[in-house]
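F.,

This is the one I mentioned.
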C-alpha cells in the first residue's frame, strides 16, 4: 500500500501550491455540471491551503506578545485530559495522512467519506486541547466554535488563518483579507482554481460568506420552527416569515464570528448524508483536495501545539510525545515537534532574554 510522502507543505520553506493549468479545458457535460458544488468546495479549501503557504507565517506566532505571555493552568487531572485530546487529534491526522495515493479513482472518491470528518475532528480535538491547557474544558462544539472565534479576533492566530467575518446577513464585514475586495470570485462558468493571492483572498471571503449564511439561516430556522422561541408578528401573533434588519443583527450577535474553524466544520458531513454523495460522484481532483486538507490540518494543529508546548515547557512536551504509541511517536508528530514547535519556543525564549537585557 503506497502512503503519502509529500505532506511537508506546512514547513517554513514550503512553496505555495500551484493551480493545475486547466484554463479553457472545462468540460461542459452533465457529469461536470453535477460536479460544480464539489469543485466550488475544492476551490475553497485549495484557497485556504494556498493562503497558508503564501503567508508562510507559522514562526510569526512566537513573536506575538500574546504567545510570549501565554501560560497554562495544567493540573494532574487536566494533564490526563490534555493527553487524551492530543492523542485523538493526532490519531485523526495520522489516519488522514495515510489515505493511499493510488490510481484507483473510485477508491479515492470513496475515501471522502472518512477524510472529510478526519480533517475536521483532528482540528476539533486540537482546538479542545488548546483550550484545555488554558483551563477551559468544553466538549460542546458550539461553545468551542465561539471561544476559538474570539481567540482568532484577539490575535492568537497568524495571518494565514486569522481572517474572519462578522455582521448581519447582507452586511458582512470581512476582516484581515485586504486583497479580497479588489478581486471577484470566479463565476459558475469559470471554476478554475484560484492561482494568485488576490483571487485566493476573494475565494476565502466567499467561503466565509457562504459559511456564515449557513449558520445564520440554520439559527433562524431553529428559532422559528420552535413555537416557544419563534418570533411573531405583534399584530397578528403569527410566526414571522421575514426578519427585519434589526432581527438579523440579533442573530449575528448570537452567531459570533465566522472563522477558519467554521470553514473546517463544513467538512463535518455525515457519510449517510446525501451531500457527501455529490463529492463522491463528482469529477474533481480528489488527490489535490486530500493534499490541501492534510496541509491545512497540519498548520492549524501546529499553531495549537506551539501554545500547548509553551504552556507545558519544552521538556514536558517532549515527555508527552515520548509516551505516544510508536506509530505516532515516530511520525509527523515528532517531526513537527523537532522542526517547528521546539524552534518556535527557542526563538521565543531568545526574544524574552533580549527584552530582559
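My design for it:
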Amino acid at each position: 500500500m503506497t502512503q503519502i510522502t509529500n505532506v511537508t507543505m506546512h514547513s517554513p520553506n514550503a512553496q505555495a501550491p500551484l493551480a493545475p493549468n486547466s484554463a479553457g479545458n472545462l468540460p461542459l457535460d452533465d457529469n461536470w455540471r453535477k460536479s460544480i458544488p464539489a469543485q466550488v468546495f475544492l476551490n475553497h479549501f485549495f484557497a485556504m491551503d494556498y493562503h497558508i503557504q503564501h503567508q508562510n507565517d507559522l514562526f510569526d506566532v512566537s513573536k506575538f506578545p500574546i504567545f510570549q505571555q501565554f501560560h497554562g493552568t495544567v493540573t494532574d487531572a487536566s494533564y490526563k485530559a490534555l493527553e487524551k485530546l492530543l492523542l485523538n487529534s493526532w490519531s485523526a491526522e495520522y489516519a488522514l495522512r495515510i489515505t493511499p495515493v493510488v490510481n484507483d479513482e473510485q477508491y479515492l472518491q470513496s475515501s471522502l467519506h472518512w477524510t472529510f470528518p478526519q480533517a475536521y475532528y483532528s482540528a476539533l480535538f486540537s482546538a479542545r486541547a488548546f483550550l484545555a491547557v488554558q483551563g477551559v474544558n468544553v466538549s460542546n462544539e458550539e461553545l468551542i466554535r465561539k471561544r476559538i472565534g474570539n481567540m482568532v479576533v484577539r490575535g492568537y492566530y497568524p495571518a494565514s488563518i486569522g481572517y474572519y467575518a462578522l455582521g448581519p446577513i447582507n452586511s458582512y464585514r470581512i476582516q484581515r483579507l485586504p486583497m479580497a475586495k479588489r478581486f471577484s470570485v470566479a463565476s459558475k462558468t469559470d471554476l478554475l482554481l484560484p492561482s494568485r493571492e488576490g483571487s485566493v483572498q476573494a475565494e476565502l471571503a466567499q467561503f466565509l460568506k457562504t459559511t456564515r449564511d449557513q449558520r445564520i439561516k440554520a439559527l433562524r430556522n431553529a428559532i422559528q420552527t420552535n413555537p416557544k422561541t419563534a418570533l411573531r408578528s405583534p399584530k397578528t401573533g403569527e410566526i414571522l416569515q421575514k426578519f427585519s434588519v434589526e432581527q438579523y443583527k440579533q442573530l449575528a450577535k448570537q452567531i459570533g464570528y465566522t472563522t477558519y474553524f467554521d470553514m473546517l466544520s463544513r467538512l463535518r458531513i455525515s457519510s449517510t448524508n446525501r451531500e457527501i454523495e455529490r463529492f463522491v460522484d463528482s469529477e474533481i481532483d480528489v488527490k489535490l483536495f486530500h493534499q490541501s486538507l492534510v496541509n491545512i490540518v497540519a498548520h492549524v494543529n501546529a499553531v495549537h501545539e506551539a501554545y500547548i508546548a509553551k504552556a507545558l515547557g519544552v521538556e514536558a512536551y517532549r515527555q508527552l510525545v515520548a509516551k505516544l504509541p510508536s506509530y505516532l511517536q515516530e511520525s509527523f508528530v515528532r517531526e513537527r515537534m523537532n522542526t517547528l514547535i521546539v524552534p518556535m519556543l527557542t526563538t521565543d525564549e531568545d526574544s524574552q532574554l533580549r527584552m530582559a537585557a
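The two ends are 55 Å apart (CA to CA).

Talk soon.
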